[in-house]
Structures are given as C-alpha cells and as structure tokens.
Design brief:
single chain; 0% helix
C-alpha cells in the first residue's frame, strides 16, 4: 500500500519560511516523479512544483518561482519543499503527489499523479 505523509506545515508570518516534507512508502521512490500541489479555501487545487525521479528536472508555478525550492532524497524516500518569503496568498493545504514516471527530463501533468497525501495546512498571516 502506497502512503505519502506530509509534515512541516504550520502558522507563520509573512516573509518567514517553512519546510515541508513528504515521506513515501510502498512505492519505488527512486523512479517516481514527485509533485507538490496546494488548495486554498474555495479554490481548486493548483500545481506548485514538481521534480523528476532523478532530480535533474524541476518545474515551478510562476507564483512561487524564486521563493520555493523542491528537493528529494532518494535514500530517505522523502521529498521536501522549502518555502521562503511566504505571502498570505500562499495559505493553503499543501499536498504531496507521486507517480512512477520514466522520464528524467520531464514531469507528468497533474492528472497523471497516481498517489496523493492527506495534506498539511500552511497559514501565512499578514
């Protein structure tokens, strides 16, 4: 059974930083593309960032470029999301997603992610 468990969310003030973690089990992590998505109240879930299985390819949403950094540790089956210069509009539930994906030079679109975590709340106060 595949499990994705997010952690690291919380309440911070604007301009501060947080690091989210997503621990994966039941899946060959080293061959899986990983993504982070978020959903704010009353809004649809949106793409934040994704990384290929090798870590060599990343894609960021324009809204987080230069502020967020995704990384992965294939030895620990964990993906991280370092969030800096947080803004109130970053407030959302953040979800980790995974899917086996052969390409090391691309990441799959949202609908191709097979596995999802339960989410972790990030709240940024102004």
């Amino acid at each position: 059974q595949v499990q994705l468990v997010e952690s690291g969310g919380g309440l911070v003030q604007a301009g501060e930083s947080l690091r989210l973690s997503c621990a994966v089990s039941g899946l060959t992590f080293s061959t899986a593309a990983m993504g982070w998505f978020r959903q704010a109240p009353g809004k649809e879930r949106e793409f934040v960032v994704a990384v290929s299985w090798s870590g060599s390819y990343t894609r960021y949403a324009d809204s987080v470029k230069g502020r967020f950094t995704i990384s992965r540790d294939n030895a620990k089956d964990t993906v991280y999301l370092q969030m800096s210069s947080l803004k109130p509009e970053d407030t959302a539930v953040y979800y980790c997603a995974a899917t086996p994906y052969q390409s090391s030079n691309y990441v799959p679109p949202r609908h191709e992610y097979a596995y999802w975590g339960q989410g972790t709340q990030v709240t940024v106060s102004s």
